[in-house]
Specification:
This protein is α/β, with parallel strands linked by helices. It has five helices and eight strands, in the order E-H-E-H-E-E-H-H-E-E-E-H-E. Helix 1 crosses helix 2.
């Protein structure tokens, strides 16, 4: 079980989720990997939309469910957005360029939805964003750092007063 740093925040609308995500954008660097977990419709793509807006991406950010990978290159930094939901075998990750994006040498940031399907193929250093939906439709966003860079990223993001992230005691979410 990995230990690390965990912060949480609740949002009540999709716009609030996007706004929270946009506060992460200034702190991202090329090579950063963000793993997104949550049920279908939880708001994973909305989170990516918020970050993309914060990075100045003007393209319409959509779910890559049927494409597996969508890339956006018109912002401050390129975004690679994977959705691994439809993949069945970890060998398929080679075919979609997954490892080229998460190896740390990428010139942009990589978002991976459903990365938990392939736990042995997760990078060593990533920020996990887990989104759950409550009975009223609100979201609980939990951010957990795995690795040194992810911890640095989460610390600076949490210290941004606009993020309004709250430290969670106990650390690990796995």
């Amino acid at each position: 079980m990995a230990n690390g740093l965990t912060y949480i925040r609740s949002t009540s609308t999709s716009e609030a989720t996007k706004q929270l995500a946009s506060t992460l954008a200034p702190y991202l660097r090329p090579g950063d990997v963000i793993m997104l977990e949550g049920d279908l419709g939880a708001g994973k793509t909305q989170f990516v939309q918020g970050v993309a807006a914060g990075l100045g991406t003007r393209a319409q950010v959509t779910s890559p469910t049927f494409n597996i990978l969508l890339q956006y290159v018109d912002g401050r930094m390129p975004i690679s957005h994977f959705d691994l939901y439809r993949l069945d075998e970890s060998d398929q990750l080679y075919d979609v360029g997954y490892f080229e994006c998460i190896d740390g040498d990428s010139d942009g940031v990589t978002f991976v939805e459903w990365g938990g399907k392939f736990p042995n193929d997760m990078p060593c250093d990533y920020l996990e964003i887990a989104i759950t939906v409550d009975s009223e439709g609100g979201r609980k966003i939990r951010a957990h750092a795995y690795g040194v860079r992810a911890r640095q990223l989460l610390c600076v993001w949490a210290n941004d007063s606009k993020s309004r992230l709250m430290k969670m005691s106990g650390g690990s979410i796995r």
